[in-house]
User: What shape does this take?
Amino acid sequence: MQEGGHIAVTVLLPTYDEADNIHGLTESIVAELPHGAELIVIDDNSPDYTWRVADELRQTVPCLRVLRRTCRRGVASAIADGYSVSRGEAVIWMDADCSHPPTLIRPLLKSLLNHDVAVASRYVDGGGDARPLLRSAASRILNMIAYYLLGTVRDYTSGYVAVRRNVLDHVKIAQNLPHGAYFIDWLYRVVKCGYSVTEVGYVNTDRIAGKSKVSGGVRTFLVYLKTIFATRFSC
Assistant: This one.
């Protein structure tokens, strides 16, 4: 997927208060990237100065770019803003809390040779969820419901994906949906448009440092459940 020295791969990394993770994670991601790829950190003006730590890393990581956002917030809009300045024909985005293993980057890119979208999945062969029981159980139940209503994909709340640029140009990310809900909506519309989607198994772990920016518990479960039903009956 790389020709004539042009950048073929972009990794988008939305961040907020991830200063404790960003250094090690950046090193791990860059180690998995092909020559000429780029890594874009999109930071929502983190109070812990994640954007500053990332900017300092640019001195030793030439492929790193930092986009500091002072007016906009949220994962979906961060991905959209990062994509708007990206150059890759293959685009990956992932969480910055170290729950998404960078070692999956190469298998995801390999899957794009035969598919339009490759989703990192906890619910196919090789997948699993090593987070606390309540969180992993809630995610499994949500995705069972999503698969029953939406079909095709086993992990609609993954948030870790590789996608061809033409797909993102055609199927835009809805920026008004809360945190991971955007992924349910976007992935279902990708499937409905007839693009080829495959899943690559991975084991989801709990964050290494910092605190989750996603409100947990029943409220999040209900938001995601509402999104599943709204997506199914509005598309």
